[in-house]
Task: inverse folding
């Protein structure tokens, strides 16, 4: 269904109501493939790892997010690249999801995990950033913006929010990149990849970043290639590669490329 | 011979007595139904079947799932009927409040953004409703917004939601989106073709989905207003 139905993952336990097993032996409600008739079906870029590793029923397992998003700093700013697939179990709910949220003209947030969680809290962050600007007559720093977000979701820790986001921007200390998630993590870094396809993306970016100075063009190609490779190998990533570049003047939307087109392009280059 | 159905964990479940089962009250139930919306150049279509079911029973054959919100916006809601009714009441109330405060009707985009926050407000006890809004945007072009039960939304050209969505969506991808087709002319969709396509698509859904059938209600939104059409479907 639309952005709807979902994979209710074992570890995201938002409330008992949502996880009712119907006592009827018919189990008719569960018959729809991929469409669990349990309240709390919602779009997520999440995979359920139902193997609990025998760790006991109460242990919350860190599940993979069915997506690939990455961001890295380089000499001329920050490159942000994401895929655009959203899955509900094995059903691809959408291939055109915007996983980069434009918080304001110089701050970007990426989306992984629960789509509603990410878009709601980042929209709230945009409001908070604007209030900061009005009160302090200057732009908010990336560190402060990411801290605001981290503190907002920390209050809901343990309640089942699912959000893994990277806050990217440019402030007076230069390019900024923070990873914030609903578990309470907030870390600064030069390179992050989040999602089920992240390992594939890391491989590409790590090897491409060896050369110290990249031009903007090379960095964009690297980001695009990394996401493409991740979509190639990860079943839960795909659709289009959306690429943004954050520089001193703010962010620019560099490109949106369909993965199929990229595939044909890279194949042609190989030949 | 026993009927095999899918259990909660995705594995096939055997339909026979398997021991004592704990019964708990569930505040939700699934009432079935399929909703579809298509956006054209200067029109939007929101269509839904009219069957209201629960388990093996059909409660009603005449319970459409499209609700008119404003002169330019229609919402289709499927899932748990109780939540659909309450949600549409809440949306209507909010529309009135907006009209009184701002002296104008809400635009489709504004309604979509508002619905997103209404749904997220119940993040920890969600409205079990799959919503699709269809209408005209400020420029008069067709707009479709599809939602998940907790408020994540995006604007689309076409979307199917509800019990038969997985069957309808690929057909729409092919006929409207021309996805993965080589050497095909991308003809823009005109209103007559769109309406016919919607009818055909629902006829197919009624063939293969038990929760979809009885009749099809189509709401066509144009700048002249909202026109409704009812088409019979399979009743079995």
Result:
């Amino acid at each position: 269904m639309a952005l709807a139905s979902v994979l209710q993952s074992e570890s995201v336990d938002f409330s008992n109501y949502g996880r009712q097993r119907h006592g009827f032996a018919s189990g008719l409600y569960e018959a729809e493939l991929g469409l669990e008739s349990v309240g709390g079906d919602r779009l997520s870029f999440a995979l359920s790892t139902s193997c609990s590793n025998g760790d006991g029923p109460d242990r919350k397992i860190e599940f993979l997010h069915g997506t690939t998003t990455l961001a890295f700093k380089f000499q001329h700013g920050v490159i942000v690249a994401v895929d655009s697939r959203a899955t509900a179990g094995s059903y691809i709910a959408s291939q055109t999801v915007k996983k980069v949220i434009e918080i304001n003209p110089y701050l970007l947030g990426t989306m992984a995990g629960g789509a509603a969680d990410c878009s709601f809290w980042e929209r709230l962050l945009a409001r908070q950033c604007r209030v900061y600007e009005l009160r302090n007559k200057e732009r908010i720093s990336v560190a402060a913006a990411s801290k605001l977000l981290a503190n907002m979701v920390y209050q809901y820790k343990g309640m089942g929010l699912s959000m893994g986001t990277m806050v990217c921007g440019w402030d007076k200390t230069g390019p900024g990149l923070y990873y914030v998630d609903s578990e309470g993590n907030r870390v600064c870094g030069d390179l992050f990849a989040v999602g089920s396809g992240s390992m594939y993306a890391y491989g590409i970016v790590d090897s491409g970043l060896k050369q110290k100075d990249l031009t903007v063009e090379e960095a964009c190609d690297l980001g695009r290639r990394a996401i493409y490779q991740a979509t190639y190998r990860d079943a839960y990533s795909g659709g289009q590669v959306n690429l943004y570049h954050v520089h001193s003047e703010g962010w620019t939307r560099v490109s949106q490329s369909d993965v199929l087109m990229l595939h044909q392009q890279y194949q042609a280059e190989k030949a | 011979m026993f009927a095999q159905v899918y259990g909660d964990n995705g594995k096939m479940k055997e339909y026979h007595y398997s021991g004592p089962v704990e019964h708990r009250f569930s505040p939700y139930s699934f009432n079935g139904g399929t909703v579809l919306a298509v956006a054209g150049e200067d029109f939007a279509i929101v269509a839904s079947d009219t069957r209201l079911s629960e388990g093996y029973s059909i409660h009603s054959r005449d319970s459409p799932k499209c609700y008119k919100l404003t002169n330019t916006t229609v919402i289709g809601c499927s899932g748990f009927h109780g939540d659909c009714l309450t949600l549409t009441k809440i949306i209507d109330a909010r529309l009135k409040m907006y009209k009184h405060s701002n002296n104008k009707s809400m635009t489709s985009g504004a309604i979509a953004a508002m619905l997103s926050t209404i749904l997220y407000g119940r993040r920890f006890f969600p409205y079990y409703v799959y919503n699709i809004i269809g209408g005209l945007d400020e420029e008069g072009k067709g707009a479709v917004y599809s939602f998940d039960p907790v408020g994540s939304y995006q604007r689309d050209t076409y979307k199917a939601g509800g019990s038969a969505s997985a069957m309808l969506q690929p057909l729409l991808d092919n006929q409207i989106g021309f996805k993965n087709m080589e050497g095909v002319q991308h003809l823009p969709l005109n209103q007559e073709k769109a309406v016919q396509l919607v009818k055909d698509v629902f006829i197919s859904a009624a063939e293969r989905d038990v929760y979809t059938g009885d009749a099809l209600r189509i709401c066509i939104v144009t700048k002249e207003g909202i026109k409704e059409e009812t088409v019979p479907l399979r009743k079995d």
User: Anything to note?
Assistant: The longest helix of chain A spans residues 115-136. Chain A touches chain B through 51 residues (CB under 8 Å). The first strand of chain A starts at residue 69 and ends at 74.
